[in-house]
Amino acid sequence: MGGSGTMAGADTAGPGAAAFIELDGVEKVFDVRKKTGFLKRERRRVRAVDGLSFTVARGEMVGYIGPNGAGKSTTIKMLTGILTPSGGRLRVAGIDPSRERTRLAQRIGVVFGQRTTLWWDLPLIDSYRLMHRMYRIPDVRYRENLERCVELLQLGELLDVPVRQLSLGQRMRGDIAAALLHDPDVLYLDEPTIGLDVVSKAKVRGFLRDLNAERGTTVLLTTHDLQDIEQLCSRVMVIDHGRLVYDGPLAGLHEAGESERTLVVDLERELPPIEAPEPARVMRVEGPRQWLAFPASASAAGLVARIAAEYPLVDLSVREPDIESVIARMYAERTSA
Amino acid sequence: MGVGSGRLYAAVAAGGFRRYATYRVATAAGVFTNTVFGLILVYTYLALWDERPQLGGYDQAQAVTFVWLGQALLAALAIGGGGFEDELMERIRTGDIAVDLYRPADLQLWWLAADAGRAVFQLLGRGVVPFAFGSLFFPVALPREVSTWAAFLVAVGLGALVSFALRYLVALSAFWLMDGTGMLHMAWIAGLFCSGMLLPLNVFPGALGEVVRALPWSSLLQAPADVLLGEAAPLGTFVFQAAWAVALLAVGRLVQSAATRRVVVQGG
Ligand SMILES: Nc1ncnc2c1ncn2[C@@H]1O[C@H](COP(=O)(O)OP(=O)(O)O)[C@@H](O)[C@H]1O
Ligand SMILES: [Mg+2]
Q1: Among residues A75, A51, A81, which one has the least CA distance to residue A63?
Q2: CATH for A2-252?
Q3: Which of residues 10-29 of B touch A (CB under 8 A)?
C-alpha cells in the first residue's frame, strides 16, 4: 500500500471510468433462523436487496431514501465490503469491495449514524491520531485535513473532551471528521442526521455541501429526513423492498408519485360539496371551507375560474404536495399493486 | 506489516494505557481490594504452612511471596476477567464489530495492542503497591540477582500473551452464542483456579496437579512465580509459555477468519 494516499484519476482507465460506484443486479439474501420451540427452528430467507442496479459518477451527491427495512444499510455495507452480495456485480473505484476490503478502505469514508468509530473513553484527538496511523496519512496532509475539519465542523473546543462526554450532534461531527482525514474519494453516510437537533443538522448539511462542492467528494447519503435530501442532493434514489423504485431529480418525485395539489376554497356560507370537473374532487368540507385535490401536473387556473363562476367565492389558496406524502403514496401504490 | 503498522499498534497500546489511567478512583479501589485480598490469603496460607511446612515444595516465605505476586498480577493479566473481552463481546453483540472490520487494521493485533497497554498500566497502577506492601510487612523470598528479575518480567510478558489469547477466544465465542456471559464466567473460574490464584498449582496432588500444571492458565501466575522464586528454569518456562501462546493465538486467527466470513455473509 505505502503512504501514497489517494490518487485522483488513478482509475480513469477503461470504458466504465465515469461510473465511480457501479451496481448491476446486486442481491443480498439473508438466511434467518428463528427458534420456534424446543429444538424446532424455522428458516426464512429475507431478500434485503433484490436486483439493484445503479451507477454514481465521481463527484455526485446522491440521496438514498426508503422506509425502514428497505435495504439501505445493507446496500451501504456491501459498498464498504463488510457484506458480500449474494448475487450481481458491484464495483467501487474499480474495486470489488468484498474481495479487497482493505485496499478499498483507503478510498472510502463511512459514517454510520448509530455507531461510532471514535474511541469512547479517550479525548477526540486520540481517535484522530489513530486514524493518522491506521490510514498512513502523510503528516502534512493529516495536519491540513484535521485543521480544515476542526474549523468547518467547529471541533476546536471538543478535541480534548472524552468522546463519551460529547452530545450526539458533537459526536456525529467528530465521526464525520474521522471519516475524512484520509481524503476518501467517496463518503457513505448512513442516517447521519438521525437524532440530531436542528442546529446540528444544519451544521452537518452545510459541511457536506461544501465538501462536495469544493473537494468533489462523491457522497451517498441515506436518510429518513427529507430535508437532508431537499437541501443537499440533486439526485435521489428511492428504494423499497430492496428494489429501486425511483432514480432521478428530486422534482421528478412528484410526478412519479402521481402527487396531488390541494385547493383550499373559502365560500360565503356553508354549502354542499362543490361539483368539480374530473379529476378534481372534494376531500373535505368544514363549514364554509372546502378542500379539493387535483393532479400536481394540471393547471389550477381552469378549476379556479370554474368555481369562481359558479360559487360565492371569498378566498382561495393552493397547497403544494409535500415530499413525505408523495413518497408515502409511492410506497402505498407499490404494496397495493 | 512494517514500520507503518508498528506505529499504529503502538498508538493503540498507548491509548489502552491512557484509557485505564483516566480511571483514578477505580485504580485506587483496585489497589485497596488487592491488598485486602492479599491479607486474607496471606493469613490463610500462613496457617496452612504452619500445619504443613514445605507444602508443595515452598517454604513459608515463598508461599507468602506467591500470594503477593498473585495480587500484583491479578489485574494486569486479567486472571479474574476485566480486560478487553467484555468490550469486544459487546461490540459483537451490538453489531458494532462491523465498523471495526472495514478499517485497514487487523482485529487480533488491534485488541492485543489495546490489552497490552492496559496490562502495563495495571501492572504499574495496581500491582506495584500491593506487592510493595506485602514485601514490607511480611516475610518474603525475593531474589537478589537482576537476571532473575529480568527473567521474571519476560515470564510475565509471555503470561500476558497467553492470557490475551485465551480471552480472545472467549470473546469470539460471542459470534456464535446468543449470550456470552456464561463463557465469560467459565473463563474467570478457570483462570482463578487453574492459574494458581487460589492455591499454588504445585500443591495440587497427583494426576490433577499434573494436568493443571500442563494447562495454559499455569502460564499466567504459576510460571512467572516459579521463575521469581527460583523453582523453575527460566528457559524451559519460556518455551512452555511461548508454545501455548503461539498455539492459542493461531487458533484465535482461525476462529477470527471463520467469524469474519460469517459477518461478511450473514451480516453479524
Ligand atoms: N444481518 C441480518 N440478518 C438478517 N436479516 C437482516 C440482516 N440485516 C438486515 N436484515 C433485514 O434486511 C432488510 C433490510 O435491512 P436494512 O438494510 O437494515 O434496511 P434499512 O437500512 O433500509 O432500514 C430488513 O428486513 C432487515 O430485517
Ligand atoms: Mg438502516
Answers
A1: A75
A2: 3.40.50.300
A3: 11-12, 15, 18-19, 22
